[in-house]
Every structure is written in structure tokens, then in C-alpha cells.
Amino acid sequence: MASVQVVLRVRSSIDDESPLRICDDNQTVDLWNYRYDDTIRFKFDRCYNSDCDHQEIFQRSIQPLLNHVFDGHNVSIFTYGATGSGKTYTMIGNESDPGLIPMAVNEIFSYTSKQHKLHKNWKYNISMSYLEVYQEKIYDLIASGNKDLNLYQNKSGKIVVGDLAESAICSFEEFCKVFMKGNNGRRVAATKLNRQSSRSHSVLLLKVEKTDNSTLERFNSKVYLIDLAGSEDNRRTGNSGERLKESGTINSSLFVLGKVVEALNQQLARIPYRESKLTRLLQDSIGGSAHSCIITTVSASKSDYYSTYNTLQFASKSRNIINKPFAQIENIKPRHDLSETRKRRISTAEDDKNNKKKKSSEIVHIEHEIGTHDSSPGISSNKCGNDTEIKYQLAEFEKKMLSRQEQQTKALLQCLTNMFPESNSQLDGIRSKVEKELVHALPRVATATKNSGADSINVLNGKENSKFNKRPAGVTKNLSSIALKPIENKLDNLKVHRLHNVNKQALDVKPITCSKKLSDDNTLLDMLRKVDDRTARQIDDLLRILNQGDCKSLTLLNTIGKKKAKAIIDFRNINGEFSDIAGLQKIPCFTPNTVRKFVECNMFSSLDVM
Ligand SMILES: Nc1ncnc2c1ncn2[C@@H]1O[C@H](COP(=O)(O)OP(=O)(O)OP(=O)(O)O)[C@@H](O)[C@H]1O
Ligand SMILES: [Mg+2]
After folding, report:
1. In terms of residue numbers, what domain contains 58?
2. Which end of the chain has fewer CB atoms within 10 angstroms, the N or the C?
3. pLDDT at site 466
């Protein structure tokens, strides 16, 4: 949870005539109340008077927020205030005094290049998009053309601007070129209050992607840097014709923004984001998942009293908004549908008389699944002719299987623990024996592929190779019986019949009943595989309901009532789909305990393999 930071920047110097006073704590502002001859007090996270330059604002209020970007969080910074109060000046600045946008981008580039030097395994990709909302239409400021872009919510609940150009940028200099070109295209016009008045809201979106090649994780962050058009009192701006029309849409979108803030403060069930394009674009910034900072800009002059009062009112309400940031981390380990693989293995076992040609084509199919298949003529056929290549591919394959998601293995082990009491020492012995069997199968195969054919057979006969023992404990944890299937097929191709026979035995999935003796190793192997299959299927099913189910179908799940169902849907709407069930913990009403209970009640309770 993080409340929206709201800071105040006062444009003109505060003199005796000014109705505004900044208190010594630099957080409190008093505004003179003419009607009652007293003061109205407003509180901010920080107040900056006209002596403060961009550097100070950046260092105090923006830099700490940007640190979240590098952990995979979204960050949003936007200016709000009346026309002429200094929003564009604050965000863009000028050549002698660059504003917050250039400073933020420069900071991102210097941080990422430093980090890349320190951690060679970390790779950064940065891209930018730039758009403006003009008269409720969205225009791309990078791509040429004057097309009104489509704004919609995608399947995972994220707000997307269709066809918006995304430009990869490798340096600050490159950014400046693209940004300046975009800025020149932005709609600006003179009014009585501002010679360079923004007639549109502009949104600069930076995507920062950090890939950690050692942990195979990808951190995806977005930084929104937004310069809003200012509210306008048309009696003062003297607008007419097109300017008046523009002013009407600017004011009405800012009015909806006020409504959204109000609704969030009152914790209403419906937040009117959809009532304007601006609020839909800001959905992640206010009441969403970003760390946000609103820079409110006001003038200290007496003539701007009412617009200053309105801005302060908006700002103080915004301070109560709580966002729920979380890290957007993606696992980039290769993954494939294991239950499908298992099904194919069973059918292969049933049809034991299949010829080698058929098996060979299955190898190619599996390789496609895991992305190792190379269609180049020398490698693709794999018809026993090119042993070295097959061995190499086996080794590659093993590596990929080793890195399969730990979560499924954990679920399987948890499942086993649930099925059999921990005190059953006989079972513990069998379980560890089974694990050893499964865990050692792959290293043996991998080593077999590195050795000559004769060595391979020795290894597969069970003669331990010292290299196996050097495998770190953490690695072996990731193994499960599932990995045996492709290995079996490939070894069959290599005519290593012994392992084939072992696996053939393991593939005979028989109906399992409670009366089966636990001391029967083969039965336990079968049971393990069947449980693993079901676990994988149930995880998929459960995840599908969590990601796609409506309130009614969610409440059909054990431990989910209406309140939790609504919280799941709300979370989904803001943050998109859950990548795993553990993601439920990001919702405040789900503690690690409730998530564990949810999994137990919806998965393990319904297992009928015993
Ligand atoms: N803090 C400041 N110090 C010096 N000059 C400023 C400051 N703030 C604004 N200005 C100047 O005031 C003028 C108006 O500022 P700016 O265009 O940033 O207003 P705005 O809030 O973006 O208005 P609009 O909503 O009409 O776009 C500009 O010429 C700008 O250089
Ligand atoms: Mg402006």
C-alpha cells in the first residue's frame, strides 16, 4: 500500500498581497479565507515556493519514487493546476533549467548503465510512447498521422492504447530527439492567461524492462510522466470558437478526474474511470498499482485566488488515495504443458508396438514444445544417424527440464504430505527412495549423453558417476517423474534398452486404490505420477477460474465468499491476470494462511486417487 504523494509548487513569489502562506514545516499551507476572515489549512507531502528549482523538486520528491521502477513497480508523476500555473514548465522546463521529465529519464539511463556494469547478468530495455488527449481523442505524438487511437481494456484488465507507437531508446540523447519531435507536434495555443497554453493532456510512457539472466526473471515497469492541460475560467481566458471548445473538453475531463478522486475517497463500489479518456489513462496512477506523485501548481497572486483555492481542494483530497503497488515480475523460464506431455506418454506406453519412426517424430514434436527443435536439415531428422547431435540435444533438454517451475513440484510434495501422515516413517523411506530414483534418472542420462555409448550404458546400469554427486541440492529439487518421458523416447532412439525397460514399467499407469501396499515402490511411482498429473490439471483449472470467473463462479470455490470474489475481480481489473495462485496474496484480504487454506480446500480435498 502506498498513498499518493501530493506536493505543491507555488509559481510566483509570495508577497504581502498573497493570500497564500507556506508554514515552516514546508508541508502546511494556509490560504486566506476572505469570507470569514480566517485561514484554511492544507497539508502536503512537501511544499516548494518560487525559489525552488527543478533540481530540488526532483531530488526530494521524484528520485525516491523512481527507485521503485528498478524493482518492477509502476510509477506515475503528473502535474495538476490551473492554466498558466506552471505545469508544463515543471514537467519539461527549458534548456537552461530542464524539467522533471528530462531529469527522470536521465536518472533512469544513468542508473541502468551503472547497474549493468555491476551486474553483467542484468539487461535493460527501455522504450517510450508519447500521446496526447485532445478533445477526447487520443493522438500519437511519435508516429505520424492524425488518427484517433482506440482505448480499450484488454483480456487481463489492462488499459491499452491500440496501435500506439513504441520507440526503443538506448540513450538519453536518443530520448531527447524523439521527445522533442513529439513535443513539437503537441497542440499549444495562446490564451489571455498563457501564451503557450497546452490544449491537450500529454502522457509520456516509458517502459523499463530488466532481465536478470541468472534468475531468469524479468521485471517490467512503466513510468507515466503526464502534463495535464489546466482548468480554465473562460471569463478570464477570453476563449471563443475553437479555444472555447477545447476549454470545454479540458474542464470536463478534469471534472471527471475530481469525481474519480471523490469516489476513491468515499470508497464507492463504482469509480467513474470510464467517463473520460483521461481518467481511463490515469486508472493505474490513482487507485491503481503505481507509486504516484501529483505535483499541484498554483499561483500565489491574489488575482488567481479562486483557481488556487480549487487546486488546493483537489490536491488535499488526492492525498487520501491509497494505491496498491506491486512488482511486475515475469518468470522467463521455459514452460510447456506438462499434462499434455504426460497424456502422450501414456498413449505411447499403451501402444508399445509403435515403430521407431513414429517415436522419432514425437521427439521432434516435444522439442517444438520446449523450443529446442532446430529445423535445419542436419539436425531435424534425429533418426539415430547423428548421435553427437542427439546427445547434445538431450543435454540441452535436460537443462530445460531442470529449470521447470518449482511450484508444481512443491504442490506435488505438499500433496504427498497431505495424503500420508508425516509420522509414517515407512512412507518417508519409500518417498525418499522414489525421489532418488526420479532425481537421479536425469543426471544419469545427461552424463550418458556426454560420454561414449558404452559409458552411457554403464551409467544407466546404475554405476554412479562422481559428477552426479556434485549437483547442487537445489537443482535436484526441481526434478520430477514428468521429465522421464522425453528422455525415454530419445534413449530409445539411441538403443539404450535398459532405461527404456525401466521407464516402460513406470509408464504402466494402473488404477490406484487405498488398499495398495505402500511398500510397493512401483505403485508409489504410479501414484506420484497420477497425483502430479492431477495437481497440474487442478492448478490450471483453479487459475482459469480465478482469471476468468465471474462473481458467481468464484463463490462456487471453497473459502471464497462474495467479498473475496469481488476483491479478486477488482484486483484483476486493475492488475490483470494472476500468473499463479500465490498471486492471491497481493490482495489485502488474502493472507498467506488464507491462500494456503484456499489451495488445500479446492485442490487436495478433492483428490480421489487414494
Ligand atoms: N516556477 C516558474 N518559474 C518561472 N517561470 C514559470 C514558472 N512556472 C511557469 N512559468 C512560466 O509561466 C508560463 C506559463 O507556464 P506553463 O505553460 O508551464 O503553464 P501551464 O500550467 O502548463 O498552463 P496550461 O495549462 O495553459 O498549459 C510559461 O512562460 C512559463 O515559463
Ligand atoms: Mg501546459
Report:
1. 2-90+99-331
2. N
3. 35
